[in-house]
Design a protein that fits this description.
Largest sheet: none
Number of helices: 4
Low-confidence stretches: none
Structural class: mainly alpha
Mean pLDDT: 82
Helix content: over 70%
Radius of gyration: 22 Å
Number of domains: 1
Shape: elongated
Length: 87
């Protein structure tokens, strides 16, 4: 194989590698959004960790800092609003 073809193949491999990295990053973002949505819907962190096959500690590390506390506030305010609306 000529050196020109080798360079072209290497660039092609680099391009595929970059595409794979972008795809993995996008999938990780989608996974995070789905996890956050499940938590916002009221699923417990323990249950979500079990479904994902990770420990609760690992799941906590995956979450943005302070997210759980903010989520608890949102859920509480929704519950209060729903209770007041039912009166």
């Amino acid at each position: 194989m000529s050196s020109m073809n080798q360079r072209g193949s290497a660039r092609n491999g680099e391009s595929e590698n970059e595409e794979m990295k972008l795809l993995i990053a996008e999938l990780q973002s989608v996974k995070m959004l789905l996890m956050l949505q499940a938590l916002a819907m009221g699923y417990k962190q323990k249950h979500l960790a079990s479904v994902l096959g990770v420990s609760e500690a690992t799941l906590s590390r995956m979450m943005p800092k302070g997210f759980t506390k903010e989520l608890a506030k949102i859920i509480e305010s929704r519950s209060l609003a729903a209770a007041q609306g039912a009166r």
